[in-house]
Amino acid sequence: MKYQAINPQLFIENRIKFTQKMQANSIAFFNANDVFITGADSTMPFEQQRDLFYLSGIDQEESILVLFPEAKNPNHREILFVKETNELIAIWEGEKLSKQQATQVSGITTVYWLQEFETMITPLLKEAKRIYFNQNGHKRADTEMESRDDRFVKQLKKNYPNHQYISSFPILFELRGIKHSVEIDIIQQACNITKKGFQRVLSFVKPHVWEYEIEAEWIHEFIQNKSKGFAYTPIIASGYNACVLHYIQNNKQCQDGDLLLMDCAAEYANYASDLTRTIPVNGKFTARQKAVYQSVLNVKNKATAILKEGLLWKDYNQAVGEWMTEELLSLKLLNKVDLQQQTPEKPAYKKYYMHGTSHHLGLDTHDYGNYTDKLKANMVVTVEPGIYIPKEKLGIRLEDNLVIQKNTSPINLMEHIPIEIEEIEDLMNL
After folding, report:
1. 3-state DSSP call for residue 412?
2. 336-342 CB contacts, 8 Å cutoff, 24+ apart
3. Chain center to CA of 365
4. The pTM is what?
5. CATH number of this structure's domain 9-176
6. What's the CA gap between 344 and 339, in Å, rounded?
7. Which of 13, 257, 292, 416 has a CA that sits 20 to 30 A from residue 152's CA?
8. Per the CATH hierarchy, to which homologous superfamily does domain 181-428 belong?
9. pLDDT digits (tens, 9 = 90+) for 121-166
């Protein structure tokens, strides 16, 4: 792997937290992701199943983690199955993890080769009454594609119909929302790499460059700094394109006088950062652009200041809506009539600010985490207000990554990345 070795204590503690929440006489299974085929004999780069990585740190395909806290054999309370290297694999792909290396990465002492799994599963299941299966229950998940875990549990239910089956998602949804200090350090590293990418493009952007050329500058800097690349599909949106929230074509030429919205950030060690900055293509904001930009920044700063443990998500979102309404009134985008005609279901500000302000961040860009209860310390969230005015071909969004604290304002993992109007202009005109 490109990234520095992660302290296995992270995965040891994650497994302890998970198994403490399992019901009695239960066994849990976690499978690696598939290697996805693109056509003929080509495949996409492998991306590990995030829950398996969270619990083991293993970043290799065809791996299986088994957690069985009450196994009669103490050696079988944590088992890792990994793919064994053979001569053909060693020649064509390179060696896979040895048993010793798998233990070093995960902290799991009992490691078997994958081909031994079938002979071991039946005696293990004879001891258990309940089976925890891994399932992506994220509210935005696309479940049309069947995963390796999906196929695995389907076969388990066919072969072992008398066991009780329980989804592991509710436990992981709660656990992954609160970040370990090691995880926060890794996300900070991803943010640091993202900063380098932003600094690079600030000196590159000028009228008539193409959005895809800017994308290339970002990826160059990311890979040069031990990242696999973008944490998510990048948005490089100039002019009107910035008003399209999920614009990913990145194929237009940047014009003099336009703003350029860039929502792109690096991953590091499978953890995501998530940055948005909006800059003037020619290095100078117009008076109107400055006014709208400052309004977005004002909302972002106010939202950041109130994010702390104990805050309810609904109260947070209500406050952001009120601040955004004030800014839109000052920009003369809303008037008193708009406010009189708005409803709780359709507030007036949503005409120009139609997305949410914050989401959880971690192993996934939109990570697991609760949006109904109070915020808790060591949650990592984004704050990303925006204003989009299609008639003016003007879209501005600003986004940072924050660590929630108990009694104070959050730690901004991106505080070192330029955001003020004067900073942006000065750096673009060096």
Report:
1. strand
2. none
3. 2
4. 0.96
5. 3.40.350.10
6. 11
7. 13
8. Creatinase/methionine aminopeptidase superfamily (3.90.230.10)
9. 999 999 999 999 998 878 777 777 889 999 999 999 999 999 999 9
